[in-house]
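Give me the fold.
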Amino acid sequence: MTIIETAKMNGIDLQAYLADVLDRIHDHKINRLDELLPWNWAPAVRDRAAAA
């Protein structure tokens, strides 16, 4: 619950945050996990050509 409340306090779209973090965490480097915390998080940039 703490990470959810922190995301809310940082004005993050909770559904987008959780979906992105859960998708990325399995292959994210352990020494860079702080990038996935709500106050540091930025959505992953997807290749637009692959998405189209």
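Residues 2-42 form one domain.
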